[in-house]
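Progress report, Aim 2. The chain analyzed during this reporting quarter is listed below.
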Amino acid sequence: LKYEVTQDGNTINVEVEEKGGRFSFLGQSPCDDIEITTPSNTRVGLSANNGTIELYGMHRSGTVRSSNGKIIMDDVTGDFDVHASNGSVDIAGATVTFDIESSNERIVFAGVIVPSVGNRMTTTNGSAEITLHRIPGEELDASTTNGSIKTRLPILTTFSGDKHHIVGTIGAGDAELFVKTANGPVTVQRDTLMKS
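Predicted structure tokens for the chain:
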């Protein structure tokens, strides 16, 4: 593998490509782990093809994109744009506003949704599971084409056309949460360790 690291102002770019021919062993491509350590208040922009991205302890904002690999985030704060193609998205210990998309896997979110407009979570072939760590206050719009919707929280519904779509308010409704799946269930619940 060939690595190239460049810096432009406060931006550090790391590019990795296969060097030479396309050698593979039992269908495996050559791979390596790249670990980058930055101050926690760094704005991040990460992308990977055919690999997992793990992001821990970042307390600003950023963009995270993976093609053919999962995305794992923990202890993050800020505004994040997260997209995985053919990979799951697992976010824990988060206090964020977000736009999360997965094309062929599940999305699991556990954390606090900061009051904001436009918190969005969509997946085409997977489930969406949201576990809230603070007494929630969301305007929820959740839908699925081929799955069910479970809200394990008191919700004042303003629209419940069928088991595939629900619109309503949880708590004070300070944050907006749009959740959509095509082929999987949607679950919204609170952390079982959270005090009422």
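The first strand starts at residue 2 and ends at 8. Residues 40-190 form one domain. These observations will guide the mutagenesis work planned for the next reporting period.
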